[in-house]
Design goal:
Blueprint: E1 4-10, E2 13-18, E3 22-27, E4 33-39, E5 48-55, H1 60-73, E6 78-83, E7 88-89, E8 94-97
Parallel strand pairs: 1-6
Antiparallel strand pairs: 1-2, 3-4, 4-5, 5-8, 6-7
């Protein structure tokens, strides 16, 4: 089953990314950001997309584990990672989407 990851940080600012395009998840050095990197949807060489999430300090491992578990074991093909507009997050330690989504994929 194909799965998709949903991100929204405003009523008109959202992204839906194929989970299969997720290539890297990285915790910032201060432990307050989680960067999810995706290979290009346009098959462009060397062009990757990143979405940065704000997280509670030093909870990156737990947040990554929850995301990975839902991708691998979850039954729903539509996975909400972070939806600020509706206060819905895959893990309670995700606090915001830092990336401006409508300009990230151009």
């Amino acid at each position: 089953m194909l799965k998709y990851l949903f991100f929204q940080n405003g009523t008109d600012d959202s992204a839906l990314m194929p989970a299969g395009n997720l290539v890297d998840v990285e915790i910032s050095s201060d432990g307050t950001d989680l960067t999810m990197s995706f290979k290009s949807l346009l098959q462009s060489k060397g062009v990757n997309y990143s979405i940065v999430l704000s997280i509670t300090e030093d909870t990156g491992r737990q947040v990554m584990s929850e995301i990975a578990n839902e991708i691998v074991l979850g039954d729903n093909p539509f996975i909400t990672i972070a939806d600020e507009a509706n206060s819905e997050f895959i893990h309670p330690d995700i606090t915001a989407v830092e990336t401006t989504l409508d300009g990230s994929f151009q």
